[in-house]
Design brief:
The protein has 309 residues and is α/β, with parallel strands linked by helices. Helices cover 39% and strands 22% of the residues. It has ten helices and eleven strands. Strands 3, 4, 5, 6, 9, 10 and 11 form a seven-stranded mixed β-sheet that branches. The chain has a two-stranded antiparallel ribbon with strand order 1-2. 33% of the residues are buried.
């Protein structure tokens, strides 16, 4: 029977994901020569050729892909075993390491108060980095926008829908529509809009406006919420702001869009099998619950500088 070495199989899987020995070594904090040596040993143990030279690079053989297809089931079962063992030892308590994008961080850190039995450790990371950390075992849960999440058929991860974060519109405090009844996104079609030049938030803003029947004129470009809201306060334009990112600011009115309210979808991901962890499950449930008030029906228009509830 072949000798299936879990550590070496993880190196092979990382090579498949990263594409080169050098990138694999960087991800695993190893030297390229050590990566090559470990994979050579694995090939010898399994009795099949795993890599073929392709110029200065290497590619996985059909045998290597077959090995990894079966190895994914092994990795998943080991995650389940870890989750069951942790539940046996710690019950619902334990530590959960979370990789979260910036506007999701407050929701995650709030769990330290609402769920004191769970030690939540947060690491701010945008989508690509968060999923790299998750694959490497450095975080237990990765949060991202749905558009940035890995494919639902990625064998490494289980995707978990979490919440639909409403998008409110930020207006200068003296804007004629700052306190208008029944404000709709289409009412702002002629306004200069403030959003990033590219990336998911640019796509979300454009998509929301186009769904409302107009193409937004980008008056200014910014990616950080502090800069965006400062521009709004200065009267330079209007902006869509996720409910999770809204903070009180003098001179800015946050308005809910009642009739055509857009949302952005936030998902979590865990390694296959780890969704059975009691502590991870409690964190996921808490994040869904925390989102419920924000996703409820609209309330009265807030005052200048007041963030929505």
């Amino acid at each position: 029977m072949a000798d299936w070495d879990i550590r070496k199989l993880r190196i092979l899987r990382t090579l498949r994901e990263r594409g080169t020995v050098t990138a694999t070594a960087e991800a695993l904090r190893m030297t390229p020569s050590a990566v090559s040596q470990q994979l050579t040993n694995l090939s010898r143990q399994l009795g099949v050729e795993l890599l073929q030279a392709q110029g200065r690079r290497v590619r996985l053989t059909d045998a290597a892909r077959l090995v990894l297809r079966h190895a994914e089931a092994v990795f998943e079962q080991l995650e389940r075993a870890d989750a069951e063992l942790a539940a046996h030892v710690h019950g619902d308590a334990g530590e959960v390491r979370v990789g979260a994008f910036s506007t999701a961080v407050p929701a995650v850190t709030a769990l330290r108060v609402t769920h004191p039995g769970i030690a939540v450790r947060v690491r701010e990371a945008e989508a690509q980095e968060a999923y790299e950390l998750l694959a490497a075992g450095e975080v237990d849960l990765a949060l991202s926008l749905a558009a940035q999440a890995p494919s639902a058929v990625d064998p490494r991860f289980t995707r978990v829908p979490l919440l639909a974060d409403p998008l409110d519109v930020a207006l200068p405090g003296d804007h004629p529509l700052a306190r208008a009844d029944g404000l709709r996104l289409a009412d702002l079609a002629a306004e200069p809009w403030i959003y990033g030049g590219s990336g998911p938030w640019s796509d979300i803003t454009r998509g929301a406006c186009e769904t409302a029947g107009f193409r937004p004129h980008q008056g200014h470009a910014a990616t950080g919420w502090t800069a965006i809201l400062a521009m709004v306060e200065a009267g330079m334009g209007v902006a869509l702001v996720p409910r999770m990112a809204a903070v009180p600011r003098d001179g800015v009115v946050m308005r809910e869009l009642r009739a055509d309210r857009p949302v952005r979808h936030v998902v979590g991901a865990v390694r296959k099998g780890a969704e059975e962890s009691a502590a991870v499950g409690r964190v996921l449930d808490a994040l869904r619950t925390a989102a419920t008030p924000a996703s409820a029906g609209p309330g009265p228009a807030p005052r200048a500088g007041q963030a929505p509830a």
